[in-house]
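Lab meeting prep.
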Amino acid sequence: MDAAFTAEQDEIRRTLHELMNKRCGPEDVKAAVATPAGYDPALWSALGGELGLPGLALPERYGGVGCGITELALACEESGGALAPSPLVATAALAAPLVLALGTEAQRAELLPRIASGALTATLAVPGEALATALGLTGDNRGDWSGGGRAGGVQARQDDRHDGGWRLYGQADQVLDGHSAGLLIVAAHAGGFARSRTLLFLVHGDAQGVVRTRRTSLDETRPRARVELRDVAAELLGSGEGGEVAAALAVMGDAAATVLAAEAVGAAERALERTVEHVRRREQFGRPIGSFQAVKHRLADVYVQVQAARSAAYYAAWAAASGSGERTGGLALAQALEALRTAASEAVQLHGGIGFTWEHDAHLYLKRATGDELLFGPVHLLRARAAESAELFTRQEATA
């Protein structure tokens, strides 16, 4: 493993760092999340149209930059430090890899260039609260999480009246950026009990029968929506092999977890930096509170935890890009979410009375840590799944 960054990777980080410092301060974030879209369209235009971030990990033949998961993770580390509200994670880490892995050549040619340019935003719609399971992060994704043929979830049936097309009905309750995405990749149950399987379908966000409602969420920088599908016409993504879908979701889930881990590391580092700046300025008993040994020890512990999380995220990115088949994204995400939660909690504590006010900037990081853990975790299940996948306890029993 070569731990050094290339000149291109350093340039990506530098460019994003400058852009975020200039156009995505705390007040910009608060203003953006209050808009109907939940993000600043001008900033997204810069990220997509000018910098090409949605297509960073897409092949050049589909309009992408031709880089990989490492470059996307580094970009998200910088956007995470600013808590930038944008559809980047949903579009580039959840939706685009599925179209690339499973889509037909016609579907790739139609969708990926528009995604790469930022003209089309997309997301993955999974029934209920099963996103982490669907991605293989907290459980086996070969089960019936999409509905299992029973009431609830999203059901799919073939429509013989329209050349064997598909119709979807049901709802997904926690769809990341689901209220604004131009394209929905919907996981639905098909086949009934005779041939039960989960398939993925392409649904345009403004299609007839689609009802989308933005939901109130703890972390407004990660807007979520309820998506109701009322007999909606849909296009099957790829060939429709259920096993192929589960495998693609697991691979994409590991890569998405790596990107999210890097993003959480960026947020944790920025929360720590803001706290250090505060304790250097805030005086008590005639001296900065940062000069007290107890405060130094607390922040040193946070620093070590953030650096450990960064190492885990970088290793996961390297493993995903190397093609070795080693999947460490879930474990890196657990480490990063724990570091972010610790850094955010210390930020609230060490800012004193003002830090406990709900409107203070420190709470933006606390909300991100809590919201991400609810959506992609929790941490103990991420670690349990990583141990299960590595057969850690099975090996220990065999040697006992």
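Slide two material, second protein:
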Amino acid sequence: MGLFDFFKKDKENKEQQQALDEGLQKTKTSFFDQLSKAVAGRNTVDEAVLDDLETMLVHADVGIDTTVKVIERIEKRVARDKYVSTADLDLILREEIVALLDANSSATGSRAILDRPDSPGSPFVIMVVGVNGVGKTTTIGKLAHRFHSAGKKVVLGAADTFRAAAVDQLIIWGERVGVPVISHGMNTDPAAVAYDAVQKGVEMGADVVIIDTAGRLHNKVNLMNELSKIKRVMQKVIPGAPHEVLLVLDGSTGQNAYLQAQEFTKATDVSALAITKLDGTAKGGVVIGISAQLQVPVRYIGVGEKMTDLQLFDRTTFVNSLFKK
């Protein structure tokens, strides 16, 4: 890496850190307001403090099951260390949340595309799922921008053929980013679109093919059947495709996002999560809860409107930003 590249990378990192800090501001404000109330007038972490801390984490949309795990971890530390002051609670809470996220972390999958050689034989195929309105198609556009900016060849497949707006939106994103979009229009066979997109990716030596899918069908059985069919036809071109099933969730919906995640994990094998719209909510704690409860890694988070505001999720960076005053 030359000196110019080093300074360019350093600038990008600082800009991403600033975007993350600003995107989590509403969550941080709410989080620390409640944490301050939990420890007000107290010197040691006792049962009363832990009760208030438990309530605070639930209100932050961390989720009940995950909150219980965090509290149990802190209880063990208090029992081991005998005396823990409330002044230490920030650091302990930060360490335990990072440790909890560490159990579900993964540096593989689509985030590794940026590190691998161009065109290593066949494209890496990502199938993107999620209900309408969560920012699924926008996330695909931002992902395409991320890979394309890194010099990767990208193909998009507009297989959400139930909504004309989804097809048109993806085509617009393809034009903005400068990548081809395979589309058969509305009310066409989604599996046929996916097949042609993967075939196109193979023909042009693409590094990644990203397939959009319908956000909602008539019922869960239909959804399961449709996603299974899309997988089968892609595997006729590339055995093992898709290599990643990325579920997009709207972070601003709090625990409703977890309920959506449960339904999609029943319908298909979700291997990674992208959590969007964190900049517009105080419910950023849902990132912690969903990852822990589903035991699926969070791959990306959305912290703003710009194309660069879809960031790779780093558990330590995220938690440090959350606790930054």
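Talking points for slide two:
The chain has two domains: 3-102, 109-314.
Residues 3-102 form a domain with the Four Helix Bundle (Hemerythrin (Met), subunit A) fold (CATH 1.20.120.140).
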